[in-house]
Amino acid sequence: MNKENKSSKNYENFKKNVLNAFHLYGRVFTQKFSKEDNKLIRAMYITYLVSCLESYFRELFKEMFNKRLLNQERIFRIKKIKNLKFSFKDLIEMQDKKNSVADVLAENMNFQNINYIYEFGKAIEFNKYSIINC
């Protein structure tokens, strides 16, 4: 799969998951449930949407990091990333699993936390890669 196709596939998967959740949410609320069940259903719906968003941001982060579209200095200043420490055993395990730097960083980012999403957004170098500068 080429890289541009991967970008659109990630977005299409995200969009499909959100639309499916919305469809299911609509179908569920045509049924009669107790007040408590309705609260639980809404909570599960929101949890699923956050999970979809987290997955999308994680994949987007990895792709943008690998394409060098992120200001890496800014990414490495994020507290949790800055404090990463690896033993030799950890490095061997990463190599065996063929983990990229982007994979390791994304695993240590919490894309449910708005502060991490904000830092990710600030690290995107729009001006550096805009069409105007090409």
Provide tags for this entry.
single chain, 134 residues, mainly alpha, 7 helices
Largest sheet: none
Helix- and strand-based class? mainly alpha
**H/E series, N to C?**
HHHHHHH
Number of strands: 0
If helices are DSSP runs of H or I spanning 4 or more residues, what is the number of helices?
A: 7
Q: What shape does the CA trace take?
A: elongated
How would you portray this structure in words?
With 134 residues, the chain is mainly α. It has helices spanning 3-28, 35-66, 72-75, 79-82, 88-96, 101-107, 114-123. Helix 2 (35-66) packs antiparallel against helix 6 (101-107).
Topology of this protein?
Elements: H1 3-28, H2 35-66, H3 72-75, H4 79-82, H5 88-96, H6 101-107, H7 114-123
